[in-house]
């Protein structure tokens, strides 16, 4: 796809040597030399981005050609390719798709690629050019690439916002209808998501049409100012946050909404003064003291015991009878795996699937099951992907190994659960508690 051809093993070894050499960069030099070094290293980073893009695009073309020759149906030829790229870059599958999309765009934007190779454009600014021209056809995208990047001085001095505005102006002049369609499609992508923040907080993100978003911000700000004027001692930001919770849930933020939150905590941390962190499903670890405080302030709780090894934290089984949720293998896998089991992917579990496929004789057991996000589950069904559970000794955490079409192997090991009290019980099991905060 690119004239440079496929990267060979000798080239990879040369790059690895460069990485080792960079570890010794710096030393006793004057500040002027340090500034020059910072600029040169930035150029190297940009050139690396260009090299990765070319390699990814060539890899995709090669993989699709091989699959076409092997008779793989067209709709399945690209399955798993972005995941292979993500694994190579130690990144999530979502980011792998973005990396591949960027590489595909560089095929149509040779001047942008050239600026990257020369270190005159960094990865983020190149991403802006790709993102803002994504709705255009190939001819228009290539045209904007020539208008803005053929001369390196055209974008000199522009900030990210100015660059974004410039690209949008050029795109609108070339294909205003495509820009309108893009805006209409964006409304269909509206959604609400959450992600962890620092200090046991979380972000609630709403992607909305701009008029709705501005209206929400203005209304919350107006009402917060009114309460502050009436003597409310909370800060304006605190009041706006509390008002948002109250209006979404219909219940005062002080009381708290009636929801179900799954909390995994060791018996020692729950009933004694253990310091082992608890785990909140969908968020991550929280301090043991905070978890005990949550439990203390709740009246409607349900408990389910699970059994694990106190040394390794390996989950072995779960209580077969629950007063709150029906028992099931999927629940066991959720508690054991927490997030998608693919390396570098921490997306929520959406599929509980066989490691060795059921149609290939794989049993429906905990050892042959893994929690995966939708993208990773589909990726492992690509041609040439193979996976196999790793035989474990008693007390070891669940592990499985998978091989991608290039022959590279990766291993996934389940995270340890909170360490329980070392108390001997029948069948050599140790007890810990899974606490469910039920409505």
Automatic annotation (TrEMBL):
Residues 340-380 form the HNH domain. GO terms for molecular function: endonuclease activity; nucleic acid binding; zinc ion binding. Pfam families: HNH. It comes from the Bacteria. InterPro entries: HNH (IPR002711), HNH_nuc (IPR003615). Keywords: Endonuclease, Hydrolase, Nuclease. The keyword Chaperone does not apply. Coiled coil: none annotated. This is HNH endonuclease. It comes from Antrihabitans cavernicola.
């Amino acid at each position: 796809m690119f004239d440079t051809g496929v990267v060979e093993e000798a080239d990879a070894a040369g790059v690895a040597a460069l990485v080792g050499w960079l570890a010794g960069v710096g030393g006793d030099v004057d500040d002027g030399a340090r500034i020059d070094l910072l600029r040169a290293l930035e150029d190297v980073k940009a050139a690396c981005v260009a090299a990765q893009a070319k390699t990814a695009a060539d890899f995709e073309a090669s993989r699709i050609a091989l699959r076409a020759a092997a008779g793989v149906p067209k709709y399945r030829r690209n399955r798993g390719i972005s995941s292979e790229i993500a694994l190579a870059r130690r990144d999530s599958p979502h980011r792998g798709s973005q990396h591949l999309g960027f590489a595909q765009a560089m095929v149509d934007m040779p001047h942008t690629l050239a600026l990257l190779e020369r270190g005159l454009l960094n990865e983020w600014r190149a991403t802006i050019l790709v993102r803002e021209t994504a709705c255009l056809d190939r001819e228009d995208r290539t045209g904007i690439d020539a208008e803005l990047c053929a001369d390196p001085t055209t974008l000199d001095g522009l900030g990210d916002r100015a660059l974004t505005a410039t690209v949008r102006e050029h795109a609108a002049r070339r294909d205003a209808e495509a820009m309108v369609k893009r805006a209409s499609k964006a409304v269909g992508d509206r959604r609400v998501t959450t992600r962890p923040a620092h200090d046991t907080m979380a972000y609630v993100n709403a992607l909305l049409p701009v008029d709705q978003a501005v209206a929400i911000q203005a209304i919350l700000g107006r009402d917060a100012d009114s309460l502050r004027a009436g003597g409310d001692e909370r800060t304006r930001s605190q009041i706006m946050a509390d008002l948002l919770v109250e209006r979404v849930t219909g219940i005062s933020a002080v009381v708290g909404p009636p929801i179900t939150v799954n909390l995994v905590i060791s018996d020692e941390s729950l009933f004694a003064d253990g310091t082992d962190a608890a785990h909140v499903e969908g968020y991550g670890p929280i301090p043991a003291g905070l978890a005990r405080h949550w439990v203390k302030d709740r009246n409607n709780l349900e408990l389910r015991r699970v059994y694990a090894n106190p040394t390794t934290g390996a989950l072995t089984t779960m209580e077969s009878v629950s007063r709150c949720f029906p028992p099931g293998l999927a629940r066991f896998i959720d508690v054991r795996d927490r997030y998608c089991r693919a390396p570098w992917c921490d997306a929520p579990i959406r599929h509980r699937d066989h490691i060795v496929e059921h149609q290939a004789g794989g049993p429906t057991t905990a050892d042959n099951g893994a929690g995966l996000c939708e993208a990773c589950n589909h990726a492992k069904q690509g041609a040439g992907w193979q996976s196999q559970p790793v035989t474990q000794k008693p007390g070891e955490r669940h592990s499985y190994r998978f091989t991608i079409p290039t022959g590279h192997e990766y291993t996934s090991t389940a995270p340890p659960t909170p360490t329980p009290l070392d108390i001997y019980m029948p069948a050599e099991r140790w007890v810990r508690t899974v606490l469910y905060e039920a409505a």
